[in-house]
Amino acid sequence: MPFVVLLLGILLLLFLIIKCKLNTFISLIVTSVLVALGLGMNPASIATSIKAGIGSSLGELVIVFGFGAMIGRLVSDAGGSYRIARTLIDLFGKRKLQFAIVAASFIIGMSLFFEVGLVLLTPIVFAVALEADVPFVYLGIPMAAALSATQGFLPPQPAPTAVASALGANIGQNLLLGIIVAIPCVIVAGPLFTILARKFAPEAFVVKKSLPAFGEMKKYDLKDTPSFGLAAFTSLLPVILMAISTVYDMVVNGGKTVANPHGITAIVSMFGNPVIAMIVTLLFAVWSMGFSRGKTMDDITKTVTEAIKSISMLLMVIGGGSAFKQVLIDGGVGKAVQDVMSHASLSPIILAWVITVILRVSLGSATVAGMTASGLVTPLMQSMSVSPVLMALAIGAGSLAASHVNDAGFWMFKEYFDLDIKQTLKIWTSLETVISVVGLLMVLLLSLFI
């Protein structure tokens, strides 16, 4: 019965979002209440379960997600992201443009959300494509692959951070292993997939002389932008701080997180925490991308305010997804999954991926799919002693699969690259699925050693 209620709940959520065009957050909360009743929960405890789910996820993510948006916007508005992209493109040369785009997108994607990164890099990549006389999609595919992979696997991006937190995975380890998983995904789904895509969607690979309209483009003079080193350091500072903490734990503490650290260990642990790392980086970005560029506090305040506005609803959606997840846990769906799979021969990692893929295809949102799946597999993970980090990465891989018409990324890719729906399904949907499958294979490979 719990599985029937779950299926009906997913169908209802899909109906509310797609057919009724109801706001995603409202749809999630309404569905959570109805599913809770269907699962036989005490009506008096439903509100408590929903609040617990929202609070457990947003307690940390408000700072990580919010400050991340501010940092990305500060770097972008100062021309730092443009400097990073142009420097790498000039360094690689025209013959290796795809790898330049991959490197630039990967770096930028660590600190920017997919949508922001796509908006930022699209005009730059198009300008390079015009100069090199190559199809826009030829450079766009590796760009999209790199941006997408960072969103699925690498903290401090919101979805992987939220999933890792829900599963109790170490964020630093999730980051380091996520990079190991993401790099092959980007190579296969980027430059290599481009070769295949050119064969089954040749109509998309034409040299275009005009850029689809998507708003005013900011143009920067390189002499007025921050240096490459400063821009890259600002963007990657949270990653650097978390990596230092993880390496320190591996070398000094044997890979274990100390419960009540003291001295240097306490200091390293503090700066390696995603919340503190983002606070430190934001303060540094205010100077490096603000005051040092001659900007006033009013300019900086305007930038960070716009950044918060751009991600406020997405934060609500994450909270709604967490509420739905908590209802499923409290309502016994996770226990039912555990009971059904307790004697199954299917790997828990593969199961986590399959569940997430089903949710992703049904709901469209990678974040909602990942958060819901994390609630379903948590009891199974605990009972079978599977690494939380590997489970988080498997869920991250599944959350990227088969993006189609119920995903905002699908429409962004279509419009920015001036494709029709058929071409977008052939290229974008296939690209996302390639990342998902390669990501699963990499996680299974890591499971042999961890």
From TrEMBL:
UniProt keyword Membrane, yes or no: yes
Regions crossing the membrane: 52-76, 97-130, 175-197, 228-251, 263-287, 307-328, 349-369, 389-413, 425-449
Xref: InterPro entries: Glcn_transporter (IPR003474)
GO cellular component terms, semicolon-separated: plasma membrane
Any matching Pfam family: GntP_permease
Annotated compartments: Cell membrane
UniProt KW keywords: Cell membrane, Membrane, Transmembrane, Transmembrane helix, Transport
NCBIfam families: gntP
Protein name: Gluconate permease
Origin species: Apilactobacillus bombintestini
